[in-house]
Amino acid sequence: MAKIGFVGLGNMGGPMAANLVKNGHEVHVFDLSEAAVQHAVEAGAVFADNAAHAAEGADFLITMLPAGVHVESVLVSGDGLLDKIGKDCLVIDSSTIDAASARSLNKAAADRGIEFVDAPVSGGTAGAAAGTLAFMVGGSDAAFAKAKPILDCMGQNIFHAGGAGAGQVAKACNNMLLAIHMAGTAEALNLGVNNGLDPAVLSEIMLKSSGRNWSLEVYNPVPGVQEGVPASRDYDGGFMTDLMCKDLGLAMDASQGSQSPVPMGSAARGLFNLHQSQGNGKLDFSSLYQLYRKKS
Amino acid sequence: MAKIGFVGLGNMGGPMAANLVKNGHEVHVFDLSEAAVQHAVEAGAVFADNAAHAAEGADFLITMLPAGVHVESVLVSGDGLLDKIGKDCLVIDSSTIDAASARSLNKAAADRGIEFVDAPVSGGTAGAAAGTLAFMVGGSDAAFAKAKPILDCMGQNIFHAGGAGAGQVAKACNNMLLAIHMAGTAEALNLGVNNGLDPAVLSEIMLKSSGRNWSLEVYNPVPGVQEGVPASRDYDGGFMTDLMCKDLGLAMDASQGSQSPVPMGSAARGLFNLHQSQGNGKLDFSSLYQLYRKKS
Amino acid sequence: MAKIGFVGLGNMGGPMAANLVKNGHEVHVFDLSEAAVQHAVEAGAVFADNAAHAAEGADFLITMLPAGVHVESVLVSGDGLLDKIGKDCLVIDSSTIDAASARSLNKAAADRGIEFVDAPVSGGTAGAAAGTLAFMVGGSDAAFAKAKPILDCMGQNIFHAGGAGAGQVAKACNNMLLAIHMAGTAEALNLGVNNGLDPAVLSEIMLKSSGRNWSLEVYNPVPGVQEGVPASRDYDGGFMTDLMCKDLGLAMDASQGSQSPVPMGSAARGLFNLHQSQGNGKLDFSSLYQLYRKKS
Amino acid sequence: MAKIGFVGLGNMGGPMAANLVKNGHEVHVFDLSEAAVQHAVEAGAVFADNAAHAAEGADFLITMLPAGVHVESVLVSGDGLLDKIGKDCLVIDSSTIDAASARSLNKAAADRGIEFVDAPVSGGTAGAAAGTLAFMVGGSDAAFAKAKPILDCMGQNIFHAGGAGAGQVAKACNNMLLAIHMAGTAEALNLGVNNGLDPAVLSEIMLKSSGRNWSLEVYNPVPGVQEGVPASRDYDGGFMTDLMCKDLGLAMDASQGSQSPVPMGSAARGLFNLHQSQGNGKLDFSSLYQLYRKKS
């Protein structure tokens, strides 16, 4: 069993740390929120009063933080953890941050002889709790092999996307594509409805035709068409519009850094940003369907 | 067995008529191209020297023509067939035309006591030959029920989309959504490739994640990732960019007529039109991936 | 002085006919609305009880109708006026319709030895009343030369855009470009405001810089920045969002017919359509700024 | 006369420093390129062998660098200049960087009791040489008042856009709007040309109509329509596509940071990025017109 330092115990990090505990690991946890730490301790984790103490003597250091600046602040700036942990401690950053920062963190670690993987997740809070997250991992083959048994405790699909930063790139690509087909699905269904079609019938037709996509299959944005999806509970829960807007910003960063045109992702981002501006940031992202609907 | 008039024997209409013959129907065929008529006759159809003769005494009249103006010209204008066929002859228009024209043809037929369904297809020339087309049908329940056994001879999935014009609307929605996720898929894969990812690995990851869609599953636009797709034979065959541009124009018409916003479909249309303008109209539509690639 | 038949006396046609009367012409008027005819007669026009009577013996026939179908119905279908007027009667269609219909009307006229110009206007109801409209004219040099003195009675800038249909194309291009820079201006100002800038200061800076455009100069979309514009009277009056959506549809038609990519016009159309769907069709088109604003 | 430290002597910084010399100031210059320093010294500037020496005892410190990371590196990181200059030295950063970095530099300066303005320019290398640049300045009233006489030596229009970062925001807004109307102008003209119109005639019409904008007025993108513009010399010189892509990336950053929707700017960015990917990064940005043209 491994000794694991875990920094960042939010909606995702909390249950992830708990799953590591369940799998028998010794997990030393820290978060700026005392309540979050307390919650993790109740789940069997070991209390640490700061990040450095959580990381002390760890075999693995896992960070799960809101943005690149936080990860850099914890690992690199001032007395960052990269200067405190041992060379045999593998750092796993599961935060969703921009690829350039991930690459630069990987380099900062390598400069100190430390292995690092970027390993953002998808699957939401439900996946975090159930231990069924998907991890998209960037890093060397050796680092991936070493990280995989730990990630297996928290997730179901562990993908090795490529070298440093590739995990973040893969997630940015995937979520951009998700935004595109969700917006497209909402738009196509609205076009059908405005022309008198039943959205359930049209959904069924497109599901069996070339319009098929994940949004249509398991996340239909029209209320009443599918059971158990956010659209059928007033767009509560799920994946917030605010988070989709964040991820689309990261996709723009990846595109800017690599001079890659992303006109469709940009169009989707424009729509989600309009929807967010209209006060819907906390609703599930499939509520974009409402942006299209006719108001009297 | 039914007596069927069939007008329009192009790349799609020819094999469709042949499949009706194979199923034992008496099919009287006409096309402006003598070669096309000859070809159908060789397949067992009955020669007609004009459209009126093909339709004479028919139980079903099927039209498979390039655009709304042609269908109106054959059925309505001057001495159109709607004034010549019997009231018990069901008209099936399998052309892909705008929904407004389909509705107006349906009304013109109804005014004469004739039943009409709009029944555009998807599945391409391969599906036409194999008899595995999908039909999206708009019209009354009675007309659909009557048309279905005939359509079954030519296709595999026969969808009743709704009332008059609904078949055309469903096809426009589906193909617009197809254009959107194909463009999105090309764009996401290019973003990954430009960031050093292997397109096959990224495709695999997104297929198992929320980016999944038909383009990624069965029609990967990156050469070498999937076997048997147009991308792996220089984008030859498949569904031409020109045809996608035509269908996206029909989606714009449907949106204009119903005051429906289609920003994603419009963005996709912009890209396919750029690609077409650059001389790629005859290539399969998945060649859009090439629009994104870096040139030195 | 000329004898002029004038069909279509709406918000634009009414004052245009009145200006012809003021310039000493004998104007025979018809409209389906009796009130509109009555109003024109009070302004000095001659009553006609149908379109054919208005056109009888005219030197010029002017049509000002909502859409292509109406113009075709009046001029061509059934007993259309083109078969009733003399060969020396010049037909001026000032309706805003699609270029393809304008070309086909021109051809229908030419087939009968009649000269035809498409001459859509810009300048709104205020320009129609003041006689300061701009006319964008498509047709032969001879037809343009003959039409010009008549158009001079109703407008200030009379442009010869080119041959048949060119007037409609020029208007579609201009209004598409207007939609693009209005949307862009609204978006840039909102971006500035959201970053703490004063919209008046930012407007002033961009007016003196390369961002300058007509929307910024004379039609600022932010309430309170400019006096006398729709934005400063709750977006009342001016050019309705509904009309901009109509014109953008015509631009899409022109693009489809000529296989021209219009990604920016399409993006603008998507936004105006969203704004229209949210119930703002009757507001001035500069109210698009409100689509961008943050709501709590 | 003031003592001025000047760091960054590229295509823009070189001539700007020279203009300060011409106005009688004592300008101490540094750049990583020795040739650039040499060139400035020949123009009358004082040689400095590093940035710290250039800034020593200066009344003003001006930086003109490629990106935010360079400015932060010179001013803040490690032994940055903010810790070396006197409290009465005003820092003027004329680099075009993201607004967030500008705000954070302003704060870093304020924390040390130093005044800072962000003052990006527009006007290109020609404007830099002629001393006719426009400066968009963000900072306090006092700092602006102090900076203005210095900026007057290098430019013609000195705008006070607002507080910290406002100069960068104003430039991002302006250049985004420029990109939008240039793309729109190219697109509208191409639509006209594809429909048989003469681009010079159509340009003239739109210039006198509501389509009017800076691109149409002084920077027509169609070869042969206007003299002296990049379009009439194979898109050589002017403002490179690469730089427009950089500025549009900064606009995306400003939009992300303030949760502002920028669908039109995003659409323009998509097009310029496609054009850049096709190998046209070094051409003037008005060459976007070529992206639209039909190829056989």
UniProtKB/TrEMBL annotation, chains A, B, C, D:
The lineage of its organism: Bacteria, Pseudomonadati, Pseudomonadota, Gammaproteobacteria, Oceanospirillales. Pathway: Amino-acid degradation; L-valine degradation. It catalyses: 3-hydroxy-2-methylpropanoate + NAD(+) = 2-methyl-3-oxopropanoate + NADH + H(+). Its EC number is 1.1.1.31. It comes from the Bacteria. One of its GO terms (molecular function) is NAD binding. InterPro entries: 3-OH-isobutyrate_DH-rel_CS, 6-PGluconate_DH-like_C_sf, 6PGD_dom2, 6PGDH_NADP-bd, HIBADH, HIBADH-like_NADP-bd, HIBADH-related, NAD(P)-bd_dom_sf. This is 3-hydroxyisobutyrate dehydrogenase. Keywords: Branched-chain amino acid catabolism, NAD, Oxidoreductase. GO terms for biological process: L-valine catabolic process. Belongs to the HIBADH-related family. The keyword Nuclease does not apply. The active site is at 171. It is an enzyme of class 1 (oxidoreductase). Residues 3-162 form the 6-phosphogluconate dehydrogenase NADP-binding domain.
